[in-house]
Amino acid sequence: AQSVTQLGSHVSVSEGALVLLRCNYSSSVPPYLFWYVQYPNQGLQLLLKYTSAATLVKGINGFEAEFKKSETSFHLTKPSAHMSDAAEYFCAVSDGNTDKLIFGTGTRLQVFP
Amino acid sequence: DTAVSQTPKYLVTQMGNDKSIKCEQNLGHDTMYWYKQDSKKFLKIMFSYNNKELIINETVPNRFSPKSPDKAHLNLHINSLELGDSAVYFCASSQAGPAGNTIYFGEGSWLTVV
Which residues in chain A touch residue B31, judged by CB atoms under 8 angstroms apart? Predict the structure, then answer.
């Protein structure tokens, strides 16, 4: 069965610093992997997804993620954090047969001035 | 123009009541979902419909009954509400076809049972 684990429920960075949010997956088949962002009191917005094309995936708002099969990881990065990046970030995997998403427990990103 | 819209956004109701949340998508998608986000922000799928047909039912209590009058609408009716039903309910949709399609979420409906 598919699953994802997000390491660190809270991450704090200074504005301008590197953002690194960690996600490891478990899948018995080649996975489809997603990162979603949730701003306070809002719905989920897709940041990026991996669907077995390029292993380095670029998304919106300057985020990118690299699929590493050997490490079963799909970490999310951004070179320079902005205050507006403060939100909850969710990694998710789909089971390959349907579009059912299995979410991680989320990581809250705080950005300090 | 909102792609996936759900109403109401906020709902406060008493235990034992019956309530409905409506959802509509204008993306032309064939598949719609209901997800539940609990107080710890954990997201889990409840139901999935494809072209009005139930595809996924994730061991949700019978008090929850989804209804899809057409492929653009998926409503959620909840009977005999309990305190534990307090959560954020997200409607979502995606295009049918090969897996890996993007799922588009609505803004959420915050349900509080008192």
Answer: 99
